[in-house]
Amino acid sequence: MLRLSKLTDYATVILSFMARDKAQVHAAMEIAAVTGIALPTVSKIMKLLVNADVLISTRGAKGGYALARIPEKISVATVISALEGPIALTECSISQQGCEQASGCDIRGNWNLINQTINNALESVTLADLIRPAAMPEEVLIPVASLYR
Amino acid sequence: MLRLSKLTDYATVILSFMARDKAQVHAAMEIAAVTGIALPTVSKIMKLLVNADVLISTRGAKGGYALARIPEKISVATVISALEGPIALTECSISQQGCEQASGCDIRGNWNLINQTINNALESVTLADLIRPAAMPEEVLIPVASLYR
DNA sequence: ATAATTGAGGACTATTTTAGTACTATTTAA
DNA sequence: TTAAATAGTACTAAAATAGTCCTCAATTAT
């Protein structure tokens, strides 16, 4: 599958919690307790999200992390690239250099198109969409007959 | 970044070569020689592509591999899932079971939406598109001034 | 028929990546 | 000034991936 790292997965869980909870500031320890993710791992993720301007940190006593802006303005693409770097399927799409695979790599330009499409898809989904009650289409579509087996 | 495995990358290179070359049948050894990928690795990739009905194999002397259909009918999505399994960003989107992350995972339904979008993007691009001379937009957009530095 | 050529399948190993941990420094409120 | 909190860095362990090798099966040419 098209892998996302576990850290990215955790990040969405953490951000969802923060977006749902009214409190503005959350300490790393509190988040670790609520989500069940180990504290050092939470810290690591928070640091990356701060660097990507998704979160704002406050040090010292009563410090903690807060969303840098409203959930509607935080795209999934931003979160993913904060954790994994630029969103692209192939190395060469990032490096601007092309690859050294001498024979048979005129493919690059076209990969860019694909990457762009995927990027657009991820840009269009925000944190607010993620915490919205899910549509759960597959459950709606289960044929009634299957309930009687 | 949203990683594709190296094997998938190789697969696109191999398939591009095969789609461009007039000859119908290519032995694994020939492909290894042309692409510079080690023979055992080529074999491994070919095996997966045969199982996914992207290639057809012929054993024995004068045997080899041929595309199962015209490049226009081979989607990038097919190739990727042949090498990496189902296209999805999160585990839970595949397993149909949801995850055990007790607190805070109502996200699933929405991830499905994202995965679907990405899948559509990859379905819409074919091998034929990949070997088409690339548009190379970034080269076109270089300001002329930059040539004089 | 038989030998040569080519793919199929599976098991194994090594490498790389990722996850997770620990420790130390820095900042700020009480 | 002390306690509470994040920042940063380096290290370790585990898991995933890539790559190799070996044996078996099939086909064709001699």
* DSSP strand tally of chain A: 2
Largest interface: chains, residues each? A-B, 54 and 54 residues
Under CATH, the homologous superfamily of chain A reads Winged helix-like DNA-binding domain superfamily/Winged helix DNA-binding domain
Helix content of chain A: 40-55%
Which consecutive residue ranges of chain A, at least 5 long each, have pLDDT under 50? 93-104, 135-149
**Number of helix segments of chain A?**
8
Taking all Cα atoms into account, the compactness measure Rg of chain A is 19 Å
Q: Could you describe the largest sheet of chain A, including whether it forms a barrel?
A: 2 strands, antiparallel
**Oligomerization state of this entry?**
homodimer
**Which fold does the CATH topology of chain A refer to?**
Arc Repressor Mutant, subunit A
CATH class of chain A: Mainly Alpha
Mean pLDDT of chain A: 75
Name given to the CATH architecture of chain A: Orthogonal Bundle
Strands side by side in the biggest sheet of chain A: 1-2
Q: How many angstroms separate the termini of chain A?
A: 32 Å
- Along the chain, the helix and strand elements of chain A come as HHHEEHHHHH
How many separate domains make up the residues of chain A? 1
Shape estimate of chain A: globular
